[in-house]
Every structure is written in C-alpha cells, then in structure tokens.
Amino acid sequence: MSDYKLYSFDKIPSTQEYAHELIAKGAAADKTIILAAAQSAGRGRFRRKWVSHHGNLYVSFIYKMPERMPTLSYAVACAVAETLISFGLKPQIKWPNDILIDSKKIAGILIEYSKNFVIIGIGVNIKSNPTVAENITTKTDNIKPGIEIDAMLSELMKQMDIWKGKIMRGDFESVRARWMDLTTALNSEILYRNRPGIFCGISEEGALVLRRGSEYILVLGDEISI
Question: What is the CATH T-level fold of the domain 5-182, as seen in this structure?
Fold first, then answer.
C-alpha cells in the first residue's frame, strides 16, 4: 500500500523496540511499518522471547491512536487470520493473541501503546517454526509451500486497513461476529481464576462472556486459560 512508510532491515534486535524508539524521538508517523528479515531480541507478551530466524514475517505497524481501544486486538486477529485465509490456509484464533492452524501456533500478535500511537507487532511462521515450551508451533510451508514474505506482507497491509478501519468507524459488531466465527473455544469449557466456565463469546464492549451455571461473567484482560 503506497500510503504506508516502510523501514526495512535485514536484522535488528526488535521491530517493536525500533518502533518505540521512533516514537520517543518524535520521528513516528501514522501508518509506518517496521520490517525485519530477522530479529536478535524479538519478543511477545510478557517479554517472552520470539525466536526470529530468517524466512518468516516480523513486522510492527505504527498507527496514530490517541486513546487505547480494547476492541482493537479483535480486529488485528481477524486481519492476520484473513491474511492466512487468502493463501488457502484455515486458521483459528485463540484468546488473546495467538493464531493457530491444526491447534498449532503459526502467528502471534503484540499490541503496545506509546504516547499517541499504538504499535502492533505481528510474527508469522513461514519457512521455520521454533520449538518453544509454551506452544506447539507450525509454519505455512508445512501446509502451503512457497508463500513469499512480500506477498504475505502486502496482503496483511490490506487486511489491517480493512479490519482496523471497521473499529475506527465504530463497527465492532462485524469484527465481533467474524472473530467468533474463527475462535477456537466457543461454547467450550475454559478456566478463569482457576475455576471452569463456559466461553459464550464476547460482549459488545469486547469483554469475554463466561457462564457458570446461571451466572454470567464479563472478563477483561488475560486471566483465562483455553
């Protein structure tokens, strides 16, 4: 997309950290992309290491965002899932930020805020998938060999514009509906604060809705286990 500004590197410590540095220096602009062929210090949620060898997609998007938007994460998950679907893959979304294929993690999302910007980090396994303690992983080459990073990024940019645009226009309902189409655990038992409940979906405000007997609970944050 021609209206994005792209910074591209062969290897940097972290696209996410580079984005933070741009913002801190006052050099960031809306619709900026930081792309790296490899990262030496890539990270996910809770600063977990994101193994970042050459051959996969590692990218951070910078957008103007004066206020935090709890619903944004759902739109980003839909954008990543739809990107994979466009290549003939069949992803599912696992709360809060994992994209799975055949119950194996293929992509992750990290959303952070800095000043008047949001930084959306996305990693997609294409040519390699790491062995990590937290997840069983996979890569697109296992299912659809030959997908190129440039093609994946181009489609992702298009999908980010579509799904983030829905949120910015106040259309969370279509995002919510698609997210629930793609999620892994709808109507199944999950754990919240170490107690089981039935995952019923997400509310109009973006909270998870759990049912325990006749009681319904709204959950904001990452306190559930699927």
Answer: BirA Bifunctional Protein; domain 2 (3.30.930)
